[in-house]
Amino acid sequence: MVYAQVSTMLHLEESLFQLIAQTSSNLPPDVRKALGVAIAIETPNTQSAQALSIIATNIDMAQGEESPICQDTGMPTFVVHTPVGVNQILIRKAIRSAVAEATKKGKLRPNSVDSITGTNSGNNLGPETPLLHFEQWEEDEIEIKLILKGGGCENKNIQYSLPCEVEHLGRADRDLAGVKKCLLHSVWQAQGQGCAPGAIGVCIGSDRGHGYAVAKDQLFRTLDDLNPDAVLAKLEAEILEEANKLGVGAMGFGGKASLIGCKIAAANRLPASFFVSVAYDCWAFRRLGVRLNPETGEIVHWLYRDPSEDVKRMSEVEGFPLTGKEVVLTSPVTEEQARSLKVGDVVVINGDMYTGRDNVHHYLMHHPAPTDLNGAVLYHCGPVMLKKDDKWYVTAAGPTTSIREEPYQADVIRNFGVRVVIGKGGMGPKTLAGLKESGAVYLNGIGGAAQFYARTIKEVKGVYLEQFGIPESMWHIRVEGFAAIVTMDSHGNSLHADVEKATGAALRDL
What we know:
By secondary structure, this protein is α/β, with parallel strands linked by helices. The chain has helices at about 10-25, 30-40, 45-65, 90-105, 150-155, 175-190, 210-215, 230-245, 335-340, 360-365, 410-415, 430-440, 450-455, 495-510; strands at about 75-85, 130-135, 140-150, 160, 165, 170, 200-205, 260-265, 275-280, 285-290, 300-305, 325-330, 345-355, 375-380, 385-390, 390-395, 420-425, 440-445, 455-465, 475-490. Helix 2 packs antiparallel against helix 3 and helix 6 (about 175-190) packs antiparallel against helix 14.
């Protein structure tokens, strides 16, 4: 069938908006099922079990409110298949328009930043954003798939060039045994920075650039499918089983659930090259798709999910299960209070808090603070914000990966008197030394739990450094009942270093 190039597809943009909104807020059934297995196998009353409980609650909250599961909605990646004769230029324009509208309505966080000037476009549009991949096919309907993959897990993508030396595992040769070493290492190196338990898409072969594209494309497979290649199917099952013996656990806290999926493709390569490319995705595995009527643009049916089926709750109870042993802090926090905390303590924070990510930390290295940070709680967070009647509201606010601030954090703590830093994934030896020197503490929040933490934010009291854009501004917020776990204290202890060492040993044993 050939379609007129002048077709207007009146419902196309609305269909695309629905796809974006649902992808951002509603995990597909296969991911929910895999996370349910992770929850079931985890040891009760452990830090990983607590993290998975919050994750489950957050999934329910996001779906119920149709709000972003995670505040980092990533770089939207669309894969579009069209029948011959369908106007792809029209579809490209409609996607860009729908992305801008979804950003305006808080379904996406403004994430498109000019790489030269550092300016945020504010609408997720810019050179090469969003990412669009078009292909023709011989079916009658238009198919559009979308994946939202945040920066934290994107930074844990990794590529190996075989033969090579793999940490803890020795030499990886140009064979499946060498590939297996690389894939187990890829899960280990992500730790909590990739928001475990995660999933990996893999390409064995191809060239450097296309290998990553094929690896990411594997993430469009459902987690419960079976690879048609028997050799790769066996390898996928082995990696899934053995990666969950590493002990990385949810958020890198240590535990039984480290990986929820492994999907592998093989592509021909040059004789001189043997690449293994890994696309790591977090537990907030946001991927959906639609089939569209090519004449009207209306949704014919959804991929990955059936809207007519009720979405089952992931959590039996809403909120963080308190035991009465939590340490309650009201900011500002004193040095004595910070030094009294130790790794493993669950802390509940009330009072004022300030967000600060990459641009804020860099700014503070060269300028006075825009407000008094003595005794402050500094939250590594780039929230999704909406403005109504000249007042700001937070719609999603989970922690970002903290290791990016490692070059700055100890100096910021020392120079401005910050007592509590909150993020996810942990920080390195320079920050650990800074905590000990200054009397401060690092708390690990649950990455991706953007709705869970947004509910604790009762007021936006102000904003500083707005020139950096919404995610990178310093937001002054007031919280009640903000729960996180001490993973680095002022006595030189780091849960992250301990887990990395223990899982490294487990990796070597495997």
